[in-house]
User: What shape does this take?
Amino acid sequence: MIANGENLVFWEYDKSLGIDMSEVNIASTEVTKDLVIMDSFCKDSTPTNGEWIAPHGLIQYGFHYVDEGKAYLKNVRQTQMVTNGDHVRILSSEPMPDDFSFRMRFTPTDIPEEDFSITNIFPKLKKFIGEPEEVRTNNYIRVGWDFEDEWDAGHDQTLVYCSLEYDKFGMQRVYPIERQIKQGYEEADGKNEIKLKNDREYELNILVEGQTATATIYEVKSWYYKELSSVTYTFSMERPEENYPLSIEATGDVNLIIEEIEVLKI
Assistant: This one.
């Protein structure tokens, strides 16, 4: 049975299962948004020839594919993958050097419209009407390094984030106090206002030298780059001695189209 849903993942078998298609019940009235067929998806064989992989090679971290030279990152909705949905994350196949510069040109898609309900304009009405629906809850774009994915993927890394829920741009270090139970974090003092829009092209630059990192984001215009926000911070939390891969992630409803990625060792 094919049911209503979004970003469903279908698995292919290499031998006949003896299915009688006359007995298959098609219960969906949804129009298909995307249909992507890939011949493989695991840690050693991916649409990017193994250059970018999902943590542990698992589809539950979303999926990516390449079309006309661009990488498309699609999240898997939590309604479809209840163990770990509503995000897409890819890791570099090689660990990052100690010091590096990073550049990514990308276009976000599927950012929900802001909720301009009457209770946001007049907060006192909430006690009579109730809280407005949080349509942009947990919508983030993140780039992380020192990303240790063996134990607790996404909960031990230094990262730059764009919050679409709070319209903020900043840096943070998250680390496990107790593995998979309690998490600590160190956050840069400055969280700058930023508002990303659908189908606009942006460029994110990150420079990492020891404990200090600088991140700047631009909107790519026809003839120039418009700087939207920049933050520099020196972390007191020590970086790990071992080198780990780079992480690119989108959460909530957001998907990404990535035009360029460049990493330079310095």
